[in-house]
Every structure is written in structure tokens, then in C-alpha cells.
Amino acid sequence: MFQECFQHAARSIWAYAYDMETIHLRVRTKRDDVEEVTVIAGDKYDWDRFNEERPLVKIAADRFYDYWEAAVKPKFSRFAYLFRLRQGDETVYLTEDGVCDNPPPPVAGYYDFPYIHEIDLFAAPEWAKSAVFYQIMPDRFANGDASLNPEGVQDWGETPAADSCFGGDLKGILDHLDHISELGATAIYLTPIFQAPSSHKYDTIDYKKIDEHFGDKEMLKQLVNACHSRGIRVVLDAVFNHTSERFPPFQDVLRNGEQSKYADWFHVRTFPAEVKDGIATYDTFGFYGQMPKLNTANPEAKQYLLDVAEYWIRETDIDGWRLDVAGEVDHHFWRAFRQTVKAAKPDAYIIGEVWNDARPWLLGDQFDSVMNYPFAGRALGFFAGEGADGRTFAEEINGLLMRYAQPTNEVVFNLLSSHDTPRVLTQAGGDKRKLKLMVVFLLTYIGTPCIFYGDEVGLQGENDPGCRCCMEWDEERQDRELFDFYKLLIGLRTSSPALLSGRFRFLHAEAGDARIVYERLGDAEHFTVWMNPTGEETVLEHAMETNDWHDALTGEHAPAEDGVQRVELEPYGYRILRREL
């Protein structure tokens, strides 16, 4: 065995409390190198009376490694443990002190899980596990009150430019809640709605005022209440990394320089704060001089922003925050932010914008979730690209799953497109068949899915500003067949517990073969999803012990013969099978 590939670490994504009774243990080995992994666990204070052996199951594989997992339920909320790994007639033991040929006497050198503390559990809100989000840019969704229109508003539906305003507002969202309810979405994520000079509002002037072109606090309350009456949660977008240059404290810095009482609210490298040759003398978002970066380590600035987070929960009963450019804000601030938000509303959902591996923010003390752009990249690359390879795709997805603990995977914010990316149908080259495969994957995968407004009726658009086009409300110009497809898949997801929190695993994903089969396995139901992302008809086979499968969308029986399930698939076709346990 390649012992140098072994990986385990106590109290990490390799060993964590899933709930108050269960600890998940993971071990990594070289791919196809180890036949069997077993955990030997016992109470460190009385090993002889309280110990057990439990096999680990191979749950995933990426290009180089296999990943094994077991769920252990210690009798006294604590235990010591080591692993036995076997390949053929070779057996070794993995301990905290390293690899050895014979197990050391208990419990010297063993790994240790000292105690399951409830306060230390990763505790994302339960409702997020079953939510289907619908992302809205208010200016582009619907114009409900023309009296709020800014000067120079463009005609609805015109091609957007970077500085376009179309007059969408909170009343427009309120007026079209029937559309969101019919679709089946159970949560809304609104891009920023606070006072700002732009249409996108990611350059805040006043964090405690709804932008006058969107409405006011009373209208937000009305919208939140209407959503709650329909079982729809509402999450707002906050920009705590930077502000507008018109933010009053920054204006004070511009006027008074180093003497300003707000000078340390920002990262000013040299005074005066100004832009020279396109480069600001202060830190900014990107190189945008009109977006100065906040110093969230400054106690006064920090408290100001924490008050904002609490204020909107207390005043309007929102259900959480999506946090813009979250990866560029210090961890101390986010820890305080979580404490503030959870004190105001314990089941508030906190989503950070982190585009890469987000493990440092997902340890239970900061965010509940992050926008899972790596998921989007893998899904788009596989389903919308050319030369798809099932094994490579499975390795990439498994690699993402192994980044995080299971509780994180159950609520990570999965998406295919957003206000910062080309629309998913555009990325699919306008091919609805490819789009549907991606949507099926999104809605049968583990995590919290999000639909970008208009994707469900066939909107297209390249990168910003193209992707930020106006919602199409003329049903004659909507793709209603696509809407019905989204509605059907969302309905299946929200009515199927196994699709919300069941185990995800690839069953068929071979090199040189684009076709894939994967499963979602829960306590009472079992799904298999069969996909053919090629332009040819095919018959896909997989060994299957039972013959009680039915099409999850039509109810038609899907027989298995002689222990093999054979599924016919059209070009770019899919089938979702289900059975009760």
C-alpha cells in the first residue's frame, strides 16, 4: 500500500460531529490501492468494556485518491480510535503517531475525539436543506411602481448597458409572487436593495435605507410578510467589503483627510485619498476608485456594520444574508457577524460569496454556506462542453464533495448562473437539451439549489451586462415548456427527502464514456439518475439487485432483468428512477 497517500486528521473535515450522537470519520488512500478500511474505536477511560470495530465505506474517488467514511455513535460522546487498512495479505494501522504494522496498546498514540459539544456543531438552518432559491435583481425583475423610476430609465426589455436602469422595484416583486410560487421556489435571494447610485446597488451609500427607486422599509416589510405567508424565505445581499465613495464616512475622509474621525474606517495608504492615474491611494474593490474598501477591523466600523445586520432582521424579519466579496473580509469580523445574526434570528441563513475552496469560512463559526461556483464550473464544463468524460466529471464532483463535511454539503449554495456569469442557456449554446441535463443535475444533487430569475423561461445573455437582462413577462415570448420542466423538477425535489439530504454517489462514470449514473439514497427512498450527454441514442446498463424501480416523473415501471437495469436514453436524454425502501 502507498502509505504516503494515507490521510486523516482529528477534529477536521476528516473527523467531525454530524449531530449530537454521530461522528463521521473519513480516511483517504491512493486510488484502487486499499481493499478494506476499518475503524477500531473505544472509550479512552474504559477501552476493554467499550470498544467496537466498524467498516468504512468507499464513498468517493477523485483522480488520485479513494475516500472512505464511517458513522460512529460513541456511547459517552467521546472516543479514541485508530484505523486498520488491508490490501490482500498486507495489513497496517493508521494512528495519530503514524503508520505501524501492529496496533499499539490502547490508547497511546490513538486519535482522540474528546467530546461532542452541541455548541461546536455545524448548525445551518434546517429549512435551508429543503429550500430552492430564486435569485432576483430588483431593477431587472418587474416595474411595479413607475413613480419610483429614476431619471433616464430605459424601456423594459431593451439591451442593457453597464449603467442601465429599467425601473424594477420591490412592488414589482410583490406583484409577481404568483410566478415564484407556481415555479415552486421556497426562498428568494435579492441582490442589494439599499441606497446606492448604481442600478446593481453593490456600491452602498446608506445601509439603513432602502433605495428610493426600489421602495422603502414598509414596502420591504410588506414583501417579506407576503413571502412568509406563502412559505417563501427572503435573504438580502449585504456589501460589507466596500462602500460607495458617496458613503458619508468616506466623504468625511475626502474632506478632512487624516484628521477625519473615519480615517481608519478605510485602508488609506497615503493621504489625501484620491485616484491618480487610475490607481487609488486607498484600497478598493478591484480597481474601482468609487468603491473604497472598509476596514472591518476598526471597532467603530465593525460595530456599525454589525448593527446593520441586526437592524434589518429586527425591523423586517428577513431570513438571512448573502455576503458580497466575503472572502476579502477578515475572519474576526465574520465570527462576530455570525454571533450577531444568530442572536437576532437563530435560523437565519448566512451565505458568503467565496469563489474558491471555502473551508476556512465553513467551520461552524462564520458562514452556513457559500455560493458554489466550483460546482457550476464543473457542471457547465461537462454538460455544455465537448468531449465529456464521465470518469473525469465524477472525479471533479467527488473532489468538491470531499472539500467539505456532510452538513456543509447539505446546504452549500449551488447554482448554474448568476448576475456575475453568462446565463446557463447561453453557456449551453442555446441547446435546451443540454440545459435540461444541467438542471436535472442541479435539482437531484446534494445542496441548496438556486435558479437565476428568467432562466426558467429561457432568458439568455453573456457576461454582465448581458446576463442582467430584463425579466420577460409576456407569456407569448416565454418558453413555457421550459418553465413547466423547471416546475416539475423542483416539485420532485421538494417532495423527496432523499433528494434533500440523502447520500450522493456515482454508480457509472467511466473513462472515454460521457454517460453517467448516480444515486441519492435516503432512509425511505432511493433514486438513480441516468444521463446521456451525447448526441447519440444509447442503452445504459448497470447492475441492480431489485426490480421495484419506477420512473419518478411518470410512475412507469422500470424493470431490471437478470440483475441488470437497462435504460434507453435519447440524445441528451435523462431518466430519474425511484423506489421505496
Automatic annotation (TrEMBL):
**Which SMART domains does this UniProt record tie to the protein?**
Aamy (SM00642)
UniProt GO molecular function = hydrolase activity, hydrolyzing O-glycosyl compounds
Q: Which UniProt keywords apply?
A: Glycosidase, Hydrolase
- Glycosyl hydrolase family 13 catalytic domain segment(s): 135-493
UniProt-listed GO biological process terms? carbohydrate metabolic process
Domain of life according to the entry:
Bacteria
Xref: PANTHER family: ALPHA-AMYLASE FAMILY MEMBER, MALTODEXTRIN GLUCOSIDASE
Q: Which family does it belong to?
A: Belongs to the glycosyl hydrolase 13 family.
Descriptive protein name:
Alpha-glycosidase
